Amino acid sequence: MIVRIFGDGQYRLAGDSDARLEELDQAYVNAVEADDEAAFAATFQTLLEYVRSSGERLADDELEPSDVMLPPADTSLEEARTEFSGEGLIPE
What we know:
By secondary structure, this protein is of the alpha+beta class. Helix content is 46%, strand content 14%. A hairpin with a 3-residue loop joins strand 1 (2-5) and strand 2 (9-12). It is globular, with a radius of gyration of 13 Å.
């Protein structure tokens, strides 16, 4: 699975990462829907750090189609609510 973090790059994650990604995605959606700034910030940063630490960062010149696209690390709760919410970030 290839995950792109806007402004950061692409990461290749092993197939066994799916369950943890879905769990973090659901927590992200719950925080956005609850309008909980603290939970959003913590959950979103945990999601980004999970991708960075579990994935292999692809070289900048190695472009692959992304399976998942995550917003940039500086995304606010308001931006998440208007641009990146709904069914979540991870496609089913």
